[in-house]
Structures are given as structure tokens and as C-alpha cells.
Amino acid sequence: ANARIGLVGLGVMGANLSLNIAENGFPVAVYNRTGAVTDAFIASAGALSERLVASKTYEELVAALPRPRAVIIMVKAGGPVDAVIEGLAPLMQEGDMIIDAGNADFHDTRRREAALKAQGLNFIGMGVSGGEEGARHGPSIMAGGNPSSYEAIREIIEAIAAKHQGQPCAAHFGPDGAGHFVKTVHNGIEYADMQMIAEVYGILRDGGTERERCAPAQIGHLFEQWNKGPLNSYLVEISGKVLQAFDPETDRPMVEMIVDKAGQKGTGRWTAIEAITLGQSPSAIEAAVAARAWSAAKETRRAGAELFGDLEAEPLPRPSEEVLERALLAAKIIAYDQGFKILSAASEHYDWGIDLASAAEVWREGCIIRSALLDDMASAIREGLPHDQLIFAPRFVEMLRDGAGALRQVVAYAASAGLPVPAFANALAYFDTMRQGRGTTDLIQAQRDFFGAHGFERVDGGAGQHGPWGGAAG
Ligand code: 6PG
Fold first, then answer.
1. Does residue 264 line the site of ligand 1, with CB under 6 A?
2. What class of enzyme is it (predicted)?
3. Sheet holding 70-73, edge to edge
4. Range of the domain at 459
5. Domain tally, the chain
6. Alpha carbon nearest to ligand 1 atom 7, residue
7. Catalytic center residues
8. Ligand 1, residues 105, 234, 265, 270: which to mutate, most atoms within 8 A of Cβ?
9. 332 alpha carbon – ligand 1 mean position (Å)
10. Torsions phi, psi for 44 (to 5 deg)
11. Is there a single domain that holds both residue 67 and residue 157?
């Protein structure tokens, strides 16, 4: 054995992760389905190539590793992961482990973990966030699976992970799919964060009087300023940069040259699907998934613009930049509250024992949703969340009492101006529901009882009660 760990899949993420591992002093045996890619990778690795062991077959890869062997897979989620496992598993021995570092659906991770366990092998589902840069210089890492397997690779994982004040942004969250689920929710929150920033961009670009409308570079400059305040975060930072970039070919703002159809590979959707399955509804995240889906219907939207584009709106005055900033902060807190609630519900359902504060902690650096606010969130969760709600944590109560009015002003403005703000509006609807001691589902219950004799609970006690609906009720 001349390597410490193996890695399959030398795409951008896999290649960068290998270099990161090698740079931290651990020799890596690398394999790619196309051998030429492996050769080219090693040839381009410079001094680090000394710690890279080229493997042209799975047999060579496995032979390069000490026992218990650990092989990271970094290939496209879905079928390709199963194909690699099928090739590797028969060559491995009791106690060896396979680590899937892709964005897997945690249900797949649970299935794979169970299947490999039956063969005496360990399977670690490990979410890795931070894009190419993160993979190369320090991602945020969310692992699941057998804790003793994680212990065996912990030294490597903590060495390559991003650091927050010296603490590695890597943790083990629980058995089987726990790590991939934490990564999935990270991505769901990522979708909401991105969407809410885009909603602000839309209001500044399309809202207000002719004179008030902002060019992308102006909005980018504003985001750059916001990044120095409480909204300090990677996504606000890069949005500022993106909006200030120009297309070298046309000299026009780069964003204006990009077709407004958003892609998605599934993680945001999985967050919403799993939440709904568990009886939750993370409205800001769902809205962000919806906004991407709606955006895909470009031709339909063009036709809609012909039919309805000139519908008169009577816009309120456009909120100031300061109001927009506070609204974004408030909406973000609500979206994160929803994300943490899903983590908590899933953890209970699957018996994972996820430490929510630890999730907030590993998200403080390295990952796409890293932000100053996550440090506050981690502390708030450690202090204990009243009713499991981040929005009820004392420090966030203060922020929301201050920001909710701004959020309301922005949503009201957007509705009056005919500008879609699905994530903002849905975050606000959730917040307003949570601050309403008595809502309107008494009527829903009565309707259900009327047409289906479903029964209701009386305010003065007694479940399974029925109303005086006469013959229509069962
Ligand atoms: C990260 C990102 C990363 C990737 C997502 C994007 O945490 O580093 O989330 O995992 O960019 O797959 O997802 P969509 O393609 O669905 O936007």
C-alpha cells in the first residue's frame, strides 16, 4: 500500500478534492473511468503529483490502499454511483469503506449503506459543499454512516475541511443518510438564499420610477456594501461581483447576456419533498424551487407578457435600499428557521440524532451558504430554541421585530408593482402564521367535518366532535 485513501472520479470536484488531500500530506490513489484523464490530472498536479498514485483499474486502486481501505467516490449522483460501487465492492474486504462525496439523494444513501453492510462493508454518505474552490482549499463537510468508520477517516476529513477560528467545518451527523440529508437541506437553504437575493435584484432593476431603476452594476455595488454589514455572506458577495461583471464580447452587463432559465439538479426539490412527507412546509425553500421551475417556461412567459404584460399596476413607492436590506435579513432568518425545522423533523423520524447547532457550525465556513449570521444561529441553537423555532430565539426575536415591517413593506410593494417575490412572500406568510395565536383553520376543520364527518377538537375540550350540520354530516 502506497496511498492512504483512494478517490474515484476526477471531474473538477474530484480532482480538486484529491489535490486538497494530497496537499494536507495524505497520499491519494486516484482513478478515473477514462485513464487518459488520470494521466493528464497527474501531469498537471505539479509537486503534489508525488502524493498521487495513478490507478488504471479498480484492482490497482484497491491494492494501493492500507486496510481498512477507504475510497471516496466523486461522480455524478444516481446511477454512476451505483456503477462505481458495483465495480469496487467485490474487491474490498470486511471493514473497508466507500465514501460517496457527491450530492446523493439520502434515500439512495440509506439503500446503499444497508446493501454494503450486508456485505461487511461500510458506507459513508458525505456531503461536500463549497464548489470548486472549496473542494481545493477547504470545503464544509457533512458526513453520515457508521461513527467508527468516520473516526477512521476523521483526521483526513478535518485536515481538508474549511476552518472557522481553527475549528474544522466538518462533522458526523448520524447513521446512514444523515450527512447527505444535512447537505440536502444546506442546498435547500442555498436555493432560498439565492432566490431572495434575486428578488431584491428584480425590485431594484424593474421597480420604482424610470429614474429609480438600477443598472446591474449599481445593484452589484449595493450588494458589495451590504456584504460589509449583517448580510455578510458568500452569496451576497458573489452576487455583487456577478452584477458588476461585463461581457467581454458585447461590453454589456454579463447578467443581461444570460438566459433567465434556472437549472436544478434536485437537492432543493428533495428538501421540499422530504419536508412535505414529514408534515412540514418550508415555504421559502419551496418558493425558491418553484421559482426555478417557473423560470424554465421561458416561451410561456413570453406569451404571458404579450397577454398580461401591460396590466396596469398602481405601485406603492419603492422601498429604500435600507428597507430592502432589513427585509432580506428578516426573510433569510425565516428561511433558515424552516431549514432547521426540517432537519429536526427528519432527524427524529429517521432516528439520526442530528445536532442542529453542529450543522450551523459546519456551515459557518467553506460552504455556499456561509455567512456571518450562521455564527449567531449556531449560538442561538446551542442556547436552546423555544418551540424548536429559530425565529423565537431571543437574538432573532429582536432582529425580526425590527425586520418584519421591512419585509412586509417589500412584499406589499412588490404585489402593488406586479413584481413576483415568491420567497419573500412565502417567508412572510409563514412568519405571520406563526405569530397568529388563533388562525383560520377552525373553518377548514368545520368544512372537513361537514362534508366528511372528519371530526374536530372543541376549544372547551373533547376531540372527535361533530357540528350541527344536519343530514349532510355523517
Ligand atoms: C455546494 C453546492 C453544490 C452544487 C449544487 C447546486 O454546496 O457546493 O450546493 O453542491 O453547486 O449541486 O445545485 P443545483 O445545480 O441544483 O443548483
1. yes
2. oxidoreductase
3. 52-55, 28-31, 5-8, 70-73, 97-100, 122-129, 140-143, 170-172
4. 441-472
5. 3
6. 129
7. 183, 190
8. 265
9. 19
10. -95, 0
11. yes
